[in-house]
Design a protein that fits this description.
The protein is an alpha+beta fold. The relative contact order is 0.12. The strands form 2 sheets. The protein has a 5-stranded antiparallel β-sheet, with helices on one face. Strands 3-4 form a two-stranded antiparallel ribbon. It is built from 5 helices and 7 strands; from the N terminus they run ββββααβββααα.
Length: 213
């Protein structure tokens, strides 16, 4: 169970849940694609090409697809950015408790949020995640966080060709935490640009959550 709150302008401003349970496709009434509903609520704003019908509580975390759990969210943020990282962390932990989302807007005339703040407890640790509703790649670029020296770019290109040609696929220089998986953050730090598609040698070491290749 979760509770959602709107303000006098009809904007979704707060969502809370005592506990987040992972969706169980074996016992819960879901569609063949694994979702609770065949489609998500058409909240004003989601018709824009760069915006997803973004769940506040993810479908995989038990969140349903009605207007009290959906906001128009930047598609890159929703699929590959901080929103996706947060949902993945909760999934890997098996759930969370004391979940609260605070959603803010630039004015009372829009249903498109400007900022999200999530607070939840994960394995005894209180987590606070805050981020703007924008393309994280563009935000990072504006902050000067995506610029890399030409030597690093040349190195990554050379490394990519070398791995593709000799089949060694050594991820040790990319997988900085040594867990055998590569995150977007790790790939970017190693000089690789997004997106990493299914024909890239790093792809099989990464998590393609929406399965789009």
């Amino acid at each position: 169970h979760y509770y959602a709150f709107t303000n006098e302008a009809g904007q979704l401003v707060r969502v809370i849940a005592d506990e987040i349970f992972l969706q169980d496709d074996r016992t819960e009434p879901v569609t063949s694609s694994g979702r609770y509903y065949a489609d998500e609520a058409k909240v004003p704003g989601v018709e824009r090409a760069d915006l997803d019908e973004g769940h506040i509580i993810a479908d995989s975390l038990g969140g349903v697809s009605n207007a009290y759990n959906i906001t128009p969210q930047n598609s890159t943020l929703n699929r590959h950015g901080d929103q996706a990282y947060m949902e993945d962390a909760i999934r890997k932990a098996g759930g969370a408790i004391n979940f609260e989302a605070i959603i803010t807007y630039p004015n009372t005339e829009t249903q498109i949020p400007s900022h999200y703040k999530y607070t939840y407890t994960l394995k005894g640790n209180k987590i606070v995640d805050e981020f703007d509703n924008g393309n994280p790649d563009e935000i990072n670029k504006s902050l000067g966080l995506t610029e890399s020296k030409s030597t690093n770019s040349n190195k990554s290109t050379s490394s990519n060709k070398s791995n593709a040609s000799n089949g060694t696929e050594d991820i040790s220089s990319v997988d900085t935490d040594g867990n055998g998986q590569v995150t977007i953050k790790e790939a970017k730090a190693a000089g690789y640009s997004m997106p990493i598609t299914s024909d890239h040698w790093l792809y099989k070491y990464m998590d393609d959550r929406d399965g789009d290749g």
